[in-house]
Amino acid sequence: MAISYRAGPVAVGRRLGPEEFVSVRTAHTHDPLGDWGPCGACDLGPLSFCANMGRGTVSSLARVQCTLRYDAQDTMFREGDDGTAVYVLIAGAVKVYKLMPDGRRQITGFFFRGDMFGFCLETAYAYTAETISPVLACRLPMTLLRTLSQTAPEVQHRIMLRMIGKLATFHDHVLLLGRKTARERVASFLLSLSDRACRRGEPPSPLVLPMGRADIADHIGLTVETVSRAMTRLKRDGLLDLPSPGLVVLRRPKALRGIADGLTPEAA
Amino acid sequence: MAISYRAGPVAVGRRLGPEEFVSVRTAHTHDPLGDWGPCGACDLGPLSFCANMGRGTVSSLARVQCTLRYDAQDTMFREGDDGTAVYVLIAGAVKVYKLMPDGRRQITGFFFRGDMFGFCLETAYAYTAETISPVLACRLPMTLLRTLSQTAPEVQHRIMLRMIGKLATFHDHVLLLGRKTARERVASFLLSLSDRACRRGEPPSPLVLPMGRADIADHIGLTVETVSRAMTRLKRDGLLDLPSPGLVVLRRPKALRGIADGLTPEAA
DNA sequence: CGGAGTTTTGACCACAGTCAAGCTTAGTGG
DNA sequence: CCACTAAGCTTGACTGTGGTCAAAACTCCG
Question: Which residues are in the HTH crp-type domain (chains A, B) (predicted)?
Fold first, then answer.
């Protein structure tokens, strides 16, 4: 069955010509260009799953790969669609969600630069992917996962490691949703964004939130109002600053960690 | 850091001698012995990740594999332990959970016959695994995931498919925890158990619950009392029968599905 | 049978949801 | 350049679902 409670187009993404690759490779300068392979379609460097691969392997990937550009609020694919491709984000932010017939929404993940998503079983995507900001993505055919086992088992192994990592974050998120209070959820969410920024080579603290409060709420199982109240309270308690809705300064990350892990009693 | 808020031993599992394999292979008769490989350490048949593999591949797996028996309530491994092995369940039931310092617990998954678990990144398990009933398990060294990319990429691909499947169930569970009501959660949980029983070749309806209400509660983010109330109400509404606490008869699975998916208004 | 542990039921309560109003910010056009 | 609008964020008052605490009933053992 095709699941699509809210109709709307799926954006195909604008294909970048070869001459545009150069600008892509220099568009993001906040991390050093590492010893990346000769694919040339992205500037992910060590963040890429194909970093440090042999020339032959990477160029065979480059042959099946294509680089796409999306606008903000584009739907990349929809729950129930034929799952023909996996994506690696080069720039921008994506949210992935499931809908219930009455409109309730659960955002199951946010993806940023370097992240890989779109794995699916038996042709149908289990969720919808929508861009939050303008996006540049590397698209790889789903069949690659199968052929890699023959041609480049090492790449397949790397992809598997990413999946194991994703499974671990799901365990954490399930704990958050099942057992944490509103305050703990917001603290955990902000810290996880901070951690991921670090892993991308960005600073941990002036945190940019590309998503709105509604998206945060639908990710951590709360309402917009509760998210807002929790953040205001964290600010009042001196744990963070909110210069603008989309910017968070972590003032006392250790204390925030304590709250996220439930070490600090709610009253404090 | 070693995370172990409640001390207690980790059971090593009793190693089965070769002479005991025969009894293992005939102990469970509820699904036909399929065209399983020559490993001989289990009777999983088509449920096994190594079903229909070449003799050479399977016998190389058999060389590194070992079959273990655990009692009920044994801890197989603990969050923070060195992740040296993955497990395939041959018989029995296992729960996998994370703890918070104050004792809050989130059960992130239940595993049954044929299921595979214990994947981990960077040596440390992200959760604790504890048996619910007596268990028979096939233990495989974690390093296998790496060597398989060289020796048997096809097996690695199958394991990856299992991971993708597990990712999909996490998406569903995150939706359940983030956006469903108590009634919907219980209905969803029972149906998911039923689905999995079917996939194992068991009947969908007289459903055996090896876990207690407390475990169910800690899995679907509720309290024991709320789980109990929700089940009682589903029974009162004629959707299921509860001949005993550990047995559930799904009387109207379609209607139950409607509740699980939020199609039926709460009042009804 | 008896007794421990689990499940169910009941009464009350609190955290987060709902509804509604104000506030801030960014974008638009006069 | 500034009114005007619209969207998103914040704050407030009230409500309801599910949590807490307590006790009764059931199940499953020995």
Answer: 180-253
